[in-house]
Amino acid sequence: MTSGGTTGTAVNSSANELVENARAKVNLTLRVVGRRVDGYHDLESVVAFADCADQLSLVPGTELLLKTTGPLADACGDVSDNLVLKAARLMAERVAGLKSGTFTLHKALPVAAGIGGGSADAAAALRLLARANGLAIEDARITEVARLTGADVPVCVPSRPCVMTGVGESLMPLNLPKLPCVLVNPRIGVATKDVFGALGLRSGELLVGVTDVIQAMVWPEAGASLEEWVEAFAASSNDLERPALRIQPVIGEVIAALNATDGAWLARMSGSGATCFAIYENTAEAGRAAEKLRRDHPQWWVHSGVLS
């Protein structure tokens, strides 16, 4: 199987085209437990998914290709090392005669933004390859490739609310209510490795005490109200927010702007930044907040919708 990459306009859809949405991932909480001796960081994070997404399509063919389109296509850069192609190549190493073809990525989510855009794209590629090849999404080879492609890819494959632990490979489903929200990105990328570097943990060092590790956070039961969930989120934090602020102080401006909107119950950074979110009582309040943010900061990327 050969592979390559191009950037251009969308191709005309074909009868055998398969399509998947790659929804934005939002870390409602993110606790860094510590840094392992292999250099990776153990995390505990409540993850939900937004109703904004990239779109990835696959037209089966003999050659593996990736084309990009959409408002943020230029931000993808050189697609030859895109996670979509990485995931497809890793699958081809594990599935004899894997059917691939031409992927077209409609890029609408900011990159290097803390909302798993590239990881969600790779997860969508795995779902498309599973459909094209008659594989169950629970196939052990898909699970392995997701883990090898990137730490956020396993959680993006099902794209359902969960508690993510370890280095992203352990997922415990959560019954979250729908969370009206606003997402804001100042259109400034933040490299995840730089944020973890600024966190400054040495190999084998714990960020939290042993007692905290043993006593993991207890989340509300199924059927709990939106208010109960927001209170639980507020009692936790995002441990990467402080080091990310040192790298990009504009994150503080985004959080302050979200907090200043009417009805914002909780404002926080997602992932390693720079995207931040706020939760509201209802979608009408979220919509009004988003309109104000767009007026006051026309250069920012703003989305209002629902996390689920």
Helix and strand topology:
Elements: E1 3-5, E2 18-27, E3 31-35, E4 41-61, E5 64-69, H1 83-94, E6 100-106, H2 117-133, H3 140-149, H4 153-156, E7 162-166, E8 170-173, E9 179-185, H5 192-199, H6 210-214, H7 226-235, H8 241-247, H9 250-259, E10 266-269, E11 276-279, H10 283-296, E12 301-307
Parallel strand pairs: 1-5, 5-6
Antiparallel strand pairs: 2-4, 3-4, 4-6, 4-7, 7-8, 9-11, 9-12, 10-11
Helix pairs in contact: 1-2, 1-3, 5-8
Q: What's the CATH C level of the largest domain?
A: Alpha Beta
Percentage of residues in DSSP E strands: 25-35%
Question: What is the total domain count?
Answer: 2
Which sheet architecture does the biggest sheet show?
8 strands, mixed
Q: Count every beta strand, where a strand is a DSSP E run of 2 or more residues.
A: 12
The assigned structural class equals alpha+beta
The tally of helices reads 10
**Poorly predicted parts:** 1-12
The oligomeric state is single chain
SSE order, one letter for each helix or strand: EEEEEHEHHHEEEHHHHHEEHE
Separation of termini?
37 Å
Helix content: 25-40%
CATH topological fold name of the largest domain: Ribosomal Protein S5, domain 2
- Any idea what the radius of gyration is? 19 Å
What coarse outline follows from CA principal-axis ratios? globular
